[in-house]
Amino acid sequence: MKQITLHHSQLKQTLAQHIANPYRHPFMKKIDDWGAQCIEKIRKAADDARKQLQNVISRKIYSIQDVLTDMTQEIRVANDRANFVETDLKQWNEKLHQLNRNLTAPIGIDIRQDENGAPFISKVLVSEITTDIFERSTDHIRIDNRGKVAVNTGSTDHASVRCKGEYTSEQYQFRVKIEELNTQKWIFFGIMSKNTILPTKSCTSQTTYGWAGYNQVYLNGISHSNYNGYKSNMRKK
Questions:
Q1: Measured between alpha carbons, how far is 211 from 221 in angstroms, rounded to an integer?
Q2: Other CB atoms closer than 10 Å to residue 158's CB: what's the count?
Q3: Same domain, yes or no, for 132 and 211?
Q4: At what angle do helices 86-104 and 28-81 cross, to 10 degrees?
Q5: What pTM did the predictor assign?
Q6: In a domain, 66, yes or no
Q7: Is the pLDDT of residue 29 over 80?
Q8: Which DSSP category does 214 fall into?
Q9: What domain range is 99 assigned to?
Q10: Residues 154 and 96 in one domain
């Protein structure tokens, strides 16, 4: 009893710590690592873009420098010889303004986000893996192992088994292990309204949505082949 009391106290303390600071949960580190990886990818992409821009700007700067060098020589010669007129001054002035604009706001450079490319940062998804159990079945289905196993008793007719859980929204992840599958390799997984009496052939119920063998998707109990490119890969383990 002393050992149990100690474990009980330790668990209460750990639980209190999680309640006080839920962000210290070990799973939060996965999100933190994902965030750090995304930041590093963005930093590297920004550095690469800066290098590309620097190369382009450098080429334009050297081009402006070459033009300005030639212009400097031209102005010096004209000034030494006093061989220039008003139109020359106007042209030089316009040229200087143009070079200045090309330096501060160079033309021919486009900076934009690539909206057509594949995103290089994958979105992180958090889903809850349900621990649902089987609760109700039709003929030819036996529920064993406290609701964790559903067994076909040998009939080749349609039969259905329903889980206990009820779901209204959000995303849920289910893991089902198929230990035996008939030679037709057809089985249906889906959801249906809790108000619908469990039918023997549940896939055809008007409140049913789900997936089956032979690339079938059921919407309102109606079968659609290859719906949105769905390919069934159900097989026994």
A1: 11
A2: 16
A3: yes
A4: 170
A5: 0.46
A6: yes
A7: yes
A8: T
A9: 28-104
A10: no
